[in-house]
Design goal:
Helices cover 0% and strands 71% of the residues. By secondary structure, the protein is mostly beta strands. β3 and β4 (39-52) form a beta hairpin.
Length: 153
């Protein structure tokens, strides 16, 4: 399930140390799932989190701890290679699988202009029944995202 993922999200700080956010992580390209069968997968994760910032949000470097719930969606695609002399690959959506997930993360917001930040973050997800497609339910990840904090105090 490795590879490069994109991240969309927004943070809203309700109090100086507490807030909420929503995130959507998606894999940019399909990954091999069962290459011999011509089956690829594109995973995506979405979650809604509570945020705790132990340091006040008016600083330039702000550590964060977040945790929440959401879902995981695995979209499967059937691929077929054309026969020679043609050189092409066709990919068609086949089926998707949705799972409940629990998400936790630890990162650091590095504010470089007002409320805009870069955030390297380590994430750990427990995805219910993911072991039906993969060998485990835990999904570790490392993200680097650019974001904007609303309500920063």
């Amino acid at each position: 399930m490795g590879g490069v993922f994109g991240v969309f999200g927004a943070d809203f700080m309700i109090k100086p140390h507490f807030g909420i956010n929503g995130e959507y992580n998606f894999r940019f390209a399909q990954a091999n799932f069962l290459p011999a069968a011509g089956l690829n997968v594109r995973p995506a994760f979405y979650d809604f989190n509570a945020i705790y910032q132990p340091i006040s949000g008016d600083k330039r470097v702000v550590p964060i701890i977040e945790g929440g719930i959401g879902g995981a969606r695995l979209s499967f695609y059937a691929t077929q290679n054309c026969t020679p002399p043609l050189t092409c690959t066709q990919s068609q959506f086949y089926i998707s699988s949705n799972h409940f997930q629990v998400h936790g993360g630890f990162g650091v917001k590095l504010y470089f202009k007002n409320d805009i930040f870069i955030k390297p973050q380590f994430d750990l997800r427990w995805v219910d029944n993911l072991n039906q497609q993969y060998s485990r339910n835990l999904v570790p990840g490392f993200t680097v995202s650019i974001g904007y904090t609303f309500g920063r105090q």
